[in-house]
Amino acid sequence: MSDTAQPSGPSFRIDMLWNDSRYRSTFIQIVALVLVILAVMYLFQNVVENLAALGKTFGFDFMTQPASYDINQRLIEYNSRSTHSTAAVVGILNTLVVAIVGCVLATIFGVLAGVARLSKNWIIARLMTVYIEGVRNVPVLIQILLFAAIFDEALPAPSAFRGEDATASMWLGDSVAATNRGFYFPMPVWLEGSFWVVVAFFVLLVGAVWFGRWAKERQQATGEALPVLPIQAGGVIIGTFLVFLVMGMPITLDFPALKGFNFQGGIYVRNSYMALTLALSIYTGAFIAENVRAGIQAVSKGQTEAAFALGLRPNRTMNLVILPQALRVIIPPLISQYLNLTKNSSLALLVGYMDVTGTLMGITLNQTGKEFETLFLGMAFYLAVSLSVAAIMNLYNEQVKLVERTSAVGMGFSVIDLFSSVSGKWEVLKKGDAKMQPLYGIRGLLNLFVIFYAVSLLLLLDYTFLAEITETRPSYFDWPGGKQIATLLMLLTLFSTLATCLFKNPRFIDLAVFDLLVFIFAVAVGWPFGQLVEGVSGPVIVLVGIAARLAIIGYTIVGERPNLTFFHRVRRA
Amino acid sequence: MKTSVFLGALAAASLTAGLAGAATLDDVKAKGFVQCGVATGVPGFAFTDASGEWDGFDATMCRAVAAAIFGDPKAIKFTPTTGKTRFTALASGEVDLLFRNTTWTLSRDTDLKLDFVGVNYYDGQGFMVPKALGVSSAKELDGATVCIQTGTTTELNLADFFRANNISYEPVPIETNAEATQKYLAGACDVYTTDASGLAATRSTFEAPADHVILPEIISKEPLGPAVRHGDSEWADVVRWTLNALIAAEELGVNSGNVEQLGSAATDNPELNRLLGTEGEYGAMLGLPKDWAVNVIKSTGNYGEIFDRTIGPDTQIGLARGLNALWTQGGILYTPPFR
Fold first, then answer.
1. B223 pairs with which residues across the strands?
2. I want to staple A326 with a disulfide (CB 3.0 to 4.6 A). Which of A288, A295, B28, B289 is the partner?
3. A 393-452 residues with CB below 8 A of B?
4. Which residue of B has its CA nearest to A160?
């Protein structure tokens, strides 16, 4: 009997591919993959053929041609002689401004409304219900148009401020003007010596943070609580003001004044921007409010009762007990709300706000007729932004979520395992583990690393997309393929290294190594590092770049104290 | 899978575009009506009247094309298009022709793959401002806020004009004429700029048209004309010669009142006979009925009649013929001979 149980020789038959469960799933996956590839190839071929039939070519040459149109809100140097790619960047920056300010405002509105909706005060709770249910159930498009119409029709035209019998007047002692074209605010003017005031402000700010930590440690050691916030705020404000006085008041304000057709001077915030940002943040805020309410209600009532029993007041119960636990429930849906807001900002054109949909996918598309290219670039941009927001929020979520059984062990391979012989065995500890208590907190050299990667990323972005295009420095779309790929790879690795470093994720070490490899690749393909920073030669930047990256990796692997404070990897003694 | 879905949409979009390529005349005859792209609503040029029917200078000329093919000016469907959507609508085959105050430019003729088949209105870009501003020349507009329709040549002319005169301005891009009017009247912009004909048309709808002036500067040449897809010459010929027939009819003194009588039998004027199909086979050469021009003029009138009825001096719009008068009367309207 035992003879027959042995498989005799190679017994693989072709029908085992779909009959034998050992091969079946692999076989099906391969077939599916081949089908998908064939389908993609067919569709791609179809596109190319049909474009050719229309007599259109596919290419990005038009991006280096002059755009020939003007854009009202521009955060970088731009005029009608600038290229289409510059116009696209102007639009991208406008989109980002709306997205970032909108997300911040929406979070503020959402948290306030979400907490207030649970208030014991009947009127406040009902008012918030009306806000949330009213705003959530009306299309955001209509709300944007409503805001724009209100600004257009209800606010006075600049001419109403003119003359003896002016029908409108400026607010706050002639410093703020609200017109139907936009809002004008006073703008600070930085005179000589203002640099030191700014420096003093930041030094004091850092000092305040350190004071806060010291006070916290002291409180944990002795149980004595200091009035931290008043001391911090007072120190920063009074200190900065003293330096301001000593330097002879080097910062003044430039007030807007009616001149010609419009107000001149000051900061001009256009109504199109105001309407879009307000409508988007109020709309998204209503959704966030519901997330916040759900998160708070997800924390068991026993927690509140226990906190009350310990003598905590309702305020502190909310801040110290409920919200930290509620955040775990709130953050995942918050990510998609941020993404929604960012994508909804593409409705900007309705109110004449020139975001990337208005410039690249609007006027540029219309004037050049390059539908596929412009839409492709636009989609790539929105995809990149959405994925970046999602990545950052996911890392933050990793930090605040409950540590599950799997998260402590499920790291897989990491570069650090290669260095076990040098650094000794590493052990992954959970957040909250007693062994890592002394190390917990955002501190250490990792913060310097954050600054290094952030500065590198900003320099690279600035050089690639914002810098003046000259004879010696062609536009990005004219670079050879290798340099274009190197640029994109550098952007990708710098961004992901920065994000993991910021959130103290253990994957930081792997990404830092990958970033070093990409940097070396960029040097190998001759990336023009010499032009990155004015006045610093290429070899210096390359050497500093490699040295800094090596130092960061080396410190993280063999340093005295491991800095990855989330899943602490602690060297076993 | 995301990629394949995206490419699928891409492919689907371009497939329809590819299919709509050739032999538009046959397609139009087969489906029984002409699909015409017009503006979303410019008084005098393309608008819906009280009964919901499209009317206006451009819309009537579109009807002339339908009359030429089917003998029936109602064998037509209109698609309102914005400055942004018009070219895509034409390229994708959503409309058969574009009769929508579109400026004939080199890049549109070549790069956008359109064919402009003629000029039905010679225009130029102008500026309108409220009289109360006290502005008498466009060069005094330094620092002004200007409403423009986005996706038009006016946007580019404006940038060039202000740059050449070294004065600054604040552009407010707007999608449609109606929105621009609303913003202009609310005082959210000081100036509204578009083709001078469009300004006159828009001003005619204001409550107090006299409070607004159109500045004397005309900063560009805007030859407005019908456009068809590139590479379909037969269809382009039909549209071109329909427009030419309207102009020739005015030149030869044919109008909607006398065309039936003139077209019933050959007259002493051979050119008139060739136009009205009582001599030669000119209709067949175009792939149209023999009496196509008679049908056109009978249903819409000649160029002069259309002009006077929709935008002429006696209408609310009140545009003078100016450049658009016949070449024999001091204008530049001129048609190649019918022979």
1. B122
2. A295
3. none
4. B187
The pLDDT profile of chain B, 339 residues, written as one tens digit per residue, is 444 444 444 444 444 444 444 688 999 999 999 999 999 888 889 999 889 899 999 999 999 999 999 999 999 999 999 887 888 889 888 999 999 888 898 888 887 888 999 999 999 999 999 998 888 888 888 889 999 988 788 888 999 999 999 998 989 988 888 888 988 998 888 999 998 888 988 898 889 888 999 998 889 888 999 999 988 889 999 999 999 999 999 999 999 989 888 888 888 888 889 999 888 888 899 999 988 999 999 999 999 999 999 998 888 888 888 889 999 988 899 899 988
From the list A101, A129, A111, the residue with the least C-alpha distance to A285 is: A111
Nearest residue on chain A to B13, alpha-carbon basis: A47
Determine the distance in angstroms separating the CA of B198 from the nearest CA of chain A, rounded to an integer: 20
Chain B, nearest residue to A259 by Cα: B143
Helix, strand, or coil (residue B317) = coil
pTM: 0.79
- On whether the CB atoms of residues B246 and B61 are closer than 8 A, the answer is yes
Cα separation, B202 vs B151, whole angstroms: 19
Residue pair A397/A332 in contact by the 8 Å Cβ criterion:
yes
* Cα–Cα separations (whole angstroms), residue B33 to B67, B285, B288: 10, 21, 14
Cβ of residue A68 closer than 8 Å to a chain B Cβ: yes
Shortest distance between the Cα of B298 and any Cα of chain A, in A, equals 37
Give the distance from residue A289's alpha carbon to the nearest chain B alpha carbon, in angstroms: 32
Pick from B17, B108, B188: CB nearest A54? B17
Q: Whose CA is closest to A440, among A405, A393, A399?
A: A399
Of the candidates A47, A181, A369, the beta carbon closest to that of B112 is on A369
Provide the CA A448 distance to its chain's centre, in angstroms: 20
**CB distance B324 to B121 below 8 Å:** yes
C-alpha to C-alpha distance for A274 and A105, rounded to whole angstroms: 12
Least CA distance to B2: which residue of chain A? A40
Residues A397 and A446: their CA atoms lie apart, in Å, by 19
Q: Which of B172, B176, B211 to mutate to test binding with chain A, by most A CBs within 10 Å of its CB?
A: B172
Q: Which amino acid is at B199?
A: L
Residue B336 token pair: 């190649």
DSSP B333: B
In this structure, chain A runs to a length of 573
User: Testing the interface with B: which of A61, A81, A366 to mutate, by most B Cβ within 10 A?
Assistant: A366
Give the residue among A5, B19, B257 at the shortest CA–CA distance from B249: B257
Instruction: Please name the amino acid found at residue B18.
Output: G
Q: How far is CA B18 from CA A369, B21, B91, in A?
A: 16, 6, 9
Chain B contacts of A369, Cβ < 8 Å?
Answer: 87, 107-108, 111-113
Spatial distance between the Cα atoms of B72 and A484, rounded to a whole number of angstroms: 58
Q: List C-alpha distances in Å: A486 to A108, A349, A479, A482, A544.
A: 39, 34, 11, 6, 18
Q: The dihedral of CA A156, A157, A160, A162: what is its sign?
A: positive
From A180, which residue of chain B is nearest by alpha-carbon distance? B188
Q: How many beta-carbon pairs under 8 angstroms link A with B?
A: 135
Question: Do the chains contact at B91 and A72, CB–CB below 8 Å?
Answer: no
Closest CB to B155 among A53, A54, A69 = A69
Report which of B46, B7, B94, B67 is spatially closest to residue B243, judged by C-alpha positions. Answer: B67
| Among candidates B88, B169, B175 on the partner chain, residue whose Cβ is nearest the Cβ of A371 | B88
- Cβ under 8 Å to B: A residues 211-270: 259-262, 264
Distances (CA, A) of A328 to A95, A402, A474, A567, B199: 29, 7, 47, 17, 58
Put simply, the answer to whether B142 touches A260 (Cβ < 8 Å) is yes
Q: Are B198 and B101 in contact (CB under 8 A)?
A: yes
Token duo for residue A175:
């410093």
